[in-house]
Amino acid sequence: MPLASPSVEDYIKAIYKAQTDSPNVTTQDVAARVGVSAPAVSKMLRRLTELRLIVHTPYQGVLLTEAGEKMALEIIRHHRLLELYLVEALGYTWDKVHQEAERLEHHISEEFEARIDALLGHPTNCPHGDPIPTREGTVAVVPNYPLTEQRVPAHLTIRRVRDTDAELLRHLKKLGLLPGTAIEFVEQEPFGGAFILRVGNEIVRVAPQAAGQIFVDSETQTPAKPQE
Question: How far is CA 3 from the centre of its chain?
Fold first, then answer.
């Protein structure tokens, strides 16, 4: 695998995550995830092509090569192990670990990664419910059903939440909406209103924007019917 700078790793990770959401990853998709201009992305894509980390076909999108995917999974493994280590060993709250891990993920050695992994008991998920890739470069498939696509009534389990919005994470923790939590989807208020959930003996209201960042699982998935 070619030696990579933090910026190269950031792009590769962004492309990998974009591919999990859509098979057609555009320059605009990458620009939005990395937070730079489209011309800057085009320049980096040329470099990544030279490094044989991606295949970029103009107007058809970006695909990671086998080497690119291996690099992405390695840096994601670093990130998610670091997040869990910061929570379990250093007492960070789950809303603060993402940015810390973003800074640290590029700089830890494989030995340091292995020691964290062993110390934590070889975990399979980060604090936000995302799977931790194995050292061999495999990653478990997790449910990808947003709460917003469910219909009532439904008994569900939260499997993961998006980790990039610290304010949202603090809000969800306050409501008790954490990965592994069993919930009942009771109803949605009219005209695109709040989602009403039962968490234990409590009833909580979740705005649609927040509900879209919560991913759930159940024994029988029942996606919402398209609105006519």
Answer: 25
Cα separation, 40 vs 47, whole angstroms = 11
Q: What is the pLDDT of residue 221?
A: 47
In this structure, are strands 54-57 and 61-64 parallel, antiparallel, or unpaired? antiparallel
Peptide bond into 223 cis (omega under 30): no
> Binning pLDDT at 50, 70 and 90, where does residue 51 land?
very high
Whether 81 contacts 113, CB under 8 Å:
yes
Contact call for residues 210 and 196 (beta carbons, < 8 A): no
E strand or H helix that includes residue 154: strand 154-161
Please check whether residue 145 is in contact with residue 215, taking contact to mean a CB–CB distance below 8 angstroms: yes
What does the block give as tokens for 187? 């109803």
143: confidence class by pLDDT, cuts 50, 70, 90: confident
Long-range residue pairs from 165-172, CB within 8 A, at least 24 positions apart, any chain: 165/213, 166/95, 166/96, 166/98, 166/99, 167/95, 168/210, 168/213, 169/94, 169/95, 169/128, 170/93, 170/95, 171/210, 172/210, 172/214
Residue 46 token pair: 């040329």
